[in-house]
Design brief:
single chain, 716 residues, mainly beta, five-stranded antiparallel sheet, 61 strands, 7% helix, membrane, WH-like_DNA-bd_sf, OmpR/PhoB-type_DNA-bd, transmembrane
């Protein structure tokens, strides 16, 4: 069908929305939803009806419906507060209020100039509920349903979050020759999180990693009879196995095995219905968790390796015949280095995904025969894990944050279009061996906010939406909790105020959305200004400043680059550290003049506090100091602690008490040390971000994960 919608032409077969100015390529779920709206104009349609009719009864959350509605509004440039196309009726549903006219399918319409201008009739909205235009209230309500969370162990392994830049809204250009029906088929249904899918050349054996009980387990599933082979390397709870890769002939599999004391790669050969004993092919440094792949020569392997914990990754080639390894030509090591790569389906070349100093994600082609490296394109986007397309002539990526699409780009980074869209959050894809489809892990994502109360010495849940709620930070000045939530589809800042200053630990049951970003941005730190009138949000390459009354935001006038240890020095000064010629230095950004100045170069990082005695400093030797006039900290065992976790301080001081985290398996343990007492663990967290206030510690936990492996269902 084709539909005339006001000044737009909608074609559901070509999945396009056209106007005189542009032709927009819609994602499949947006096409299905818009088709349903066109068939039911001027009628309130409930979310349950949409789930049954558009999502065909699949189990999806209300926020998944909200997300697609939000994207439709973007295509129409529609304002949820003053809608011309889609109106929200709180607790009832949505109404498509635009003028719609079906166009007969046999009538030719090849030029956008043939669009019929809509008549000037006005839609009467006077009878609408007075709150019909309030998208916020409906979407806050929608975030109350529960779901399960995937704690992506792979992110810890490959530091994916450190490799990619600030997200932006992606416009889709031309209708693809290869598109999807929007359908997918689940290949696994294990209790834990199933990740790292890889299919043998004959399509019969699926290898994947199941993350369960904070442990990685490598499995091979025979798709014909559902039988599963588990790769055992000892019964230790700390042993993790995987990910894996198949040789081109499907007769061998190579994989990673790690413990806190070891890092090794093994190969096994298929023997009838089982596998041979493991053959050790390489010992990697302890703390290195890189992946490994066969080349088209079964005797040569490509792998990512770091020098150990928190060190950047480099790419190497291993010749099994000679035992020699060589470091490959590759992009400059920035943040976590180079761990994301993919072998071309037919040629002897790699696609390497790597960030630059601006935190733009670059995609590079490396010819393994000549060792020649070539930049294909860069994106200022929070986007991840590029792989070659099935034909090897395009690049396939996960979509905008939070990703629920697979996108296809040409080798210049242009002409992007979606090849798959679903309601779940997608992880890094791989190619199916049928030469047409793709495999990907997908599941719900859910992180909750809790507070450990100093008065009761117990924890209580504060924010438990069915989506990710992150970066909780509390202001003692105005008794307000700020956090990032995906409750309305994309990252927005929400505020939750305490009942009164006399009961700071008793909070309201509702939160208020402060921002209206409506884009795909991603933040890694959030902090209050001392006076409580502004929030600082750190992206991967920018500092954003948000007014806590209006929600309006601005960018600090700083070059795009990696910034660490960001904090307010005072109400008019922001401190942050950047790397100059291999050395980290503290800079100050002055809000009144929008200029910068330098701290003494003996200091790498600082975390300023409203209480001057709680300000922390790290010098160029890596020693920790505290106070307005820095004094060296001797009461802590520095040999067992990391002062920074990625970009943020992993330690905070509050009066006589110290708080820091240490890894406990695949989770984190928060410790407290008061005065001369011994350190004691007080809680378990699932995020490096925590915040200490007068009343307690705000932190994050995730329910057990539930992620499965899916394959796309493509049509030509």
């Amino acid at each position: 069908m084709r539909w005339q919608i006001e000044q737009f032409l909608f074609c559901d077969q070509q999945q396009t929305l056209s106007s005189k100015e542009q032709v927009q390529q819609l994602e499949p779920m947006a096409v299905e939803l818009l088709s349903y709206f066109c068939q039911h104009p001027d009628s309130i349609v409930s979310r349950d009806e949409l789930i049954n009719s558009v999502w065909l009864g699949r189990v999806v959350t209300d926020s998944a419906v909200n997300k697609v509605v939000t994207k439709l509004r973007r295509y129409f440039d529609d304002d949820a507060k003053s809608p011309r196309f889609i109106a929200t009726f709180p607790k009832k549903g949505y109404k498509f209020i635009a003028q719609v006219r079906a166009i007969e399918s046999h009538k030719p319409l090849t030029d956008i100039e043939e669009l019929v201008q809509p008549e000037a009739d006005q839609v009467d909205t006077a009878s609408m509920d007075t709150n019909a235009h309030s998208k916020q209230s409906a979407e806050v309500e929608s975030s109350q349903k529960s779901s399960r969370k995937f704690v992506w162990a792979a992110a810890a392994m490959f530091m994916i979050a450190s490799f990619i830049g600030l997200a932006q809204f992606i416009s889709f250009k031309k209708t693809p020759a290869l598109t999807t029906t929007g359908k997918s088929v689940a290949l696994t249904r294990d209790a834990g999180a199933d990740v790292f899918p890889n299919l043998s050349a004959d399509g019969k054996l699926l290898s994947y990693v199941e993350v369960r009980d904070r442990k990685m387990i490598l499995k091979v599933k025979r798709l014909s009879d559902e039988s599963v082979f588990v790769f055992n390397h000892g019964e230790a709870k700390t042993t993790s196995v995987g990910p894996a890769d198949w040789s081109d002939d499907g007769k061998q599999i190579v994989y990673l095995v790690t413990t806190p004391e070891s890092c090794q790669y093994f190969i096994r050969t298929i023997q009838e219905s089982s596998f041979s004993e493991p053959q050790l092919v390489h010992n990697c440094p302890v703390g290195s968790y890189g992946k490994i792949e066969f080349t088209h020569d079964v005797n040569k392997l490509i792998y990512a390796e770091s020098e150990g914990h928190n060190a950047p990754y480099s790419l190497f080639e291993l010749d099994r015949k000679t035992g020699k390894k060589r470091r490959l030509s590759q992009p400059e090591l920035v943040i976590g280095g180079n761990s994301q790569f993919d072998l071309h389906p037919t040629q002897n070349k790699l696609l390497i995904s790597s960030p630059d100093k601006q935190q733009w994600e670059g995609f590079y082609e490396l010819n393994l025969d000549t060792d020649q490296l070539k930049l294909l394109f860069k994106l200022d986007a929070y986007i991840c894990c590029g792989i070659w397309s099935q034909q090897g002539d395009r690049v396939i990526l996960m979509g905008e944050h939070p990703a629920n699409q697979l996108l296809s780009y040409d080798l210049g980074g242009k002409n992007a279009y979606p090849i798959y869209s679903g309601s779940l959050n997608l992880r890094a894809p791989t190619r199916h061996s049928n030469g047409k489809d793709y495999l990907f892990p997908a599941g719900e994502s859910n992180q909750n906010i809790l507070q450990f109360r100093f008065d009761t010495q117990n924890s209580e849940e504060l924010v438990t939406n069915s989506v990710d709620d992150r970066l909780a930070t509390f202001s003692d000045k105005n008794q307000t909790l700020a956090f990032i939530s995906l409750a309305t589809g994309g990252e927005e800042i929400w505020l939750r105020q305490a009942v009164s200053n006399t009961a700071p630990n008793t909070t309201n049951n509702t939160a208020k959305k402060l921002s209206q970003f409506n884009d795909g941005r991603h933040y890694i730190d959030l902090q209050w200004r001392p006076d409580g009138k502004q929030l600082l949000a750190l992206s991967l390459n920018e500092i954003h400043l948000i007014d806590t009354i209006s929600g309006q935001w601005t960018k600090a006038k700083l070059p795009q680059r990696e910034m660490r240890a960001v904090s307010y020095k005072d109400n008019q000064t922001i401190a942050f550290s950047i790397n100059v010629n291999g050395k980290w230095q503290i800079n100050y950004y002055h809000l009144d003049s929008e200029t910068t100045s330098l701290e003494k170069d003996e200091w790498q990082y600082a975390k300023f506090s409203e209480r001057e005695e709680d300000t922390l400093w790290i010098n160029q030797a890596g020693d920790l100091y505290a106070g307005k006039i820095p004094r060296k900290v001797t009461e802590l065992d520095a040999h067992k602690m990391d002062w920074l976790s990625g970009r943020i301080f992993n330690i905070q001081k509050h009066g006589e008490a110290w708080y820091w985290q240490r890894r406990a398996g695949h989770r984190l343990e928060l410790l407290q040390k008061i005065a001369d007492q011994s350190p004691k663990p007080i809680l378990i967290t699932d995020s490096y971000h925590f915040n200490v206030s007068k009343s307690g510690v705000h932190y994050h936990q995730s329910p057990p994960q539930n992620v499965d492996i899916y394959r796309t269902v493509m049509v030509q």
